[in-house]
Amino acid sequence: MICIPAIDLLDGKAVRLTQGVYDSVNVYANDPVELAKSFEDAGCTHLHLVDLEGARMGRVQHMKILERIAHGTSLKIDFSGGLSALDTVQEAIQAGATWIGIGSKAVTDPAWVSEVIQSIGAEHVLLSADARDGMIATKGWTHTSTVALNDHIEMYIKAGIQRMVVTDIGRDGMLEGPSVDLYQTLVQSFGGKGLQLIASGGISGLKDLDACLAIGCTGVVIGKAYYEGHLTLEEMVSFEQRHQP
Predict the structure, then answer these.
(1) Which of 75, 83, 145, 186 is the most exposed place for a label (fewest CB within 10 A)?
(2) Backbone angles phi, psi at 195, to 5 degrees
(3) In the chain, what are the domain boundaries?
(4) Tens digits of residue pLDDT in 157-175
(5) Dist. CA 105–CA 125, nearest whole Å
(6) The CATH number, out of the four listed (3.30.1360.120, 3.40.640.10, 3.20.20.70, 2.40.10.350), of the domain defined by the range 2-242
(7) Nearest Cα to 14, choosing from 1, 37, 30, 36?
(8) What is the pTM of this model?
(9) How far is CA 102 from CA 14, 17, 86, 114, 228, in A?
(10) 8 flagged as catalytic
């Protein structure tokens, strides 16, 4: 299982929100590029990079930071937030993103997602499914849609997308443990169809990594647990190395 540190970008800085609320900002690093380099130096292999302003505004705001991290490290980056135009998606791939994370547009414009798949291949698309009470949230978590999480995942597995980050917004930034029951249900429902489930939200320590591994998650996004000192980079890297697929 891959342990994926997260960098959320706001005003050019690395921050964390609590439950997706933009008024609850904690700044953890003024230079996200140097922060990403410290992840690589510790032995991390992946990075979850989110343009929060892009997600809220509907257009990417931090393409240059993506490019600087991609060119300055060997991290495999999934990048999301504001990718609303095909040329922007292609620009992000050219800037160095390994995967393009698509969240709101996957709900509001499935036809556009089909164009993205045709352009860059389903293997480079990561479905970013953010859920609140079983329904998909959009627009940087500020709007809850009428689309059910399970139906959403089913549709995109049929479209060829298998790598998915699922965030339970109610758990995000709370350090109260991940939604193990939700993730277990998703793995049981879709694991046989090729779902590569990456858990996100609520990770509070090593016990949560063990729980996600036990139910079949292929990766875990780690944000506040690292930034608040509940997990060290050394612990994350060691866990990943012990549990290589």
Answers:
(1) 145
(2) -60, 125
(3) 2-242
(4) 999 999 999 987 765 555 5
(5) 12
(6) 3.20.20.70
(7) 30
(8) 0.91
(9) 20, 19, 12, 12, 28
(10) yes
Q: Render 79-138 in DSSP notation, one character per residue.
A: EES---SHHHHHHHHHHT-SEEEE-HHHHH-HHHHHHHHHHH-GGGEEEEEEEETTEEEE
Cα–Cα separations (whole angstroms), residue 231 to 4, 5, 83, 158, 239: 12, 11, 31, 36, 11
- Please tell me which residue in 51, 130, 172, 208 is annotated as part of the active site: 130
Tens of pLDDT, residues 111-132: 999 999 999 999 999 998 888 7
Would you say 129 and 103 are in contact if contact means Cβ atoms under 8 Å apart? yes
Residue 80 CA from chain centroid, whole number: 7
186 burial type by CB count under 10 A (0-12 exposed, 13-18 middle, 19+ buried): buried
